[in-house]
Model the fold of this input.
Amino acid sequence: MSIEVRIPTILRTFTGGAKAVHGDGATLLQVIDDVEARHPGLKERLVEEHGLRRFVNVYVNDEDVRFAGGLQAPTADGDVVVVLPAVAGG
Amino acid sequence: MLKIARSHVDAMISHARADHPDEACGVIIGAAGSDQPTRLVQMINADRSPTFFRFDPAEQFRLYQEMDANDEEIIVVYHSHTATEAYPSRTDISLAAEPQAHYVLVSTAESGNQDGPVEIRSYRILDRVVTEEEIEITE
Done:
C-alpha cells in the first residue's frame, strides 16, 4: 500500500488516532474506498452523492483535486494525499 | 480558558473593524500540543461576505504546510460577526472542524469600522457543543 493519506485531527477517530494511513488506487475515489475498507466511516465524511463534500479540501501532491478531476483525480505510488477540512462559518 | 496576549486581542479587533462590513477571519498558531497562541495570521475571507467566511483553500493549504514543517497547530480560529452578537451561529457550530482550537468571535455590530464598543468572546466547539470560556489577557 503505497499512497499516504494524511488525516486531519477531527477525522482521526476513524483511524484509531493515526495521523496518516496508507492505501492504493488509481484515482482519489479508489484510494478513499480502499482506506474505507480498513477504516469504516471515513468515506462518508469526505464524499457525498455528487462528489467531494463541500467543506472538505483534498490535495494530491500539493495540488487541489478540485482542479484535477475531483474524485477522479489520478493517484499513483508514492503520492501523498492531504485531507484538510475547510475553516468556515457564518 | 483562553490565555492570550493583549497584542493579539488588539490585532483581532483591528482586523474585524478594518474588514467590516465583511466578516474578518484568521488564526493564531502555536507549538503543537502547547495550547499557547504565538503567531497571529490574518486569513483572506474567500466569501468576502457580511454573513459568511471561508478560508481561501490555497492559503489554508500553505498555512498547513508551514505548520506541518514547524510542528505547529491552530490554537485560535477567530472571525467576526458584523450584525449579530459574538456567539457561534448554527453555521459556525456545524462547520467547526478544529477540535483543539479556541473559537474567538468578535462582533462589530455596534461600532462597525469605528473605534467604539466591540464584543469579543471565546468558545470551545466540540461535537457540535458550544462551551463559552473566559479570556485571560496577558499584557
About this structure: The two ends of chain A are 40 Å apart (CA to CA). Chain A has two helices and eight strands. Chain A has one domain: 3-85.
